[in-house]
Predict the 3D structure of the following.
Amino acid sequence: MISEDQFRNAKLIWDYHHMGHPLRKVDVAVGLGSNDLGVASYCAGLYRAGLFPTLVFTGGNSRNSAVRFPRGEAVHFRERALELGVPHSAILLEPKAANTGQNIAFSRQVLADAGITPSTVLLVSKPYMERRSFATARKLWPEVEVRCASEPVSFDEYLKSVGDERLVVDMLVGGLQRVIEYPKLGFAIEQDVPEDVRGAYESLVAAGFTSRLLST
């Protein structure tokens, strides 16, 4: 169990990772692969609501998803979307990406190969991946208007659904470190990080929530 202070600090980071973009119609959506099948389910719901005509699922395997999705994240996400009524004709598959940058770059190429040049793109991700996905896409796909969305769950609900509070906090901390560090490496655009969010990050790192930090 995490302490009350750790919960508050993690909630600050959770809220920061959300971009707060209102949902509206876009040319295409990209469902970013992960170990969270809720991304595919949410994409299916947005498609049925008429927010976009074309949906790309992107992702190969990672250490967090290989056991659950042995055929690859994008393949399993597509299967879930088909179960929920999205037609084959609306889905494009990108089954090789191994990180967020590749998710964006490879999806862009899949769309180009299909003759689709969008001007607006909705990135659908896990809740705490919104800001990192946005910053990456703005760097690698600057000509499109990027919007972000994730399944609308509260932090407390998400902790309970995963069932491992420490892992979730580790992922939040690791995600924020990448938001801070990746612009220096040319992987993403800069994002303003408020002082209270930085303080929460530093407190959680000091408390040992470090398993998803970049290796030095």
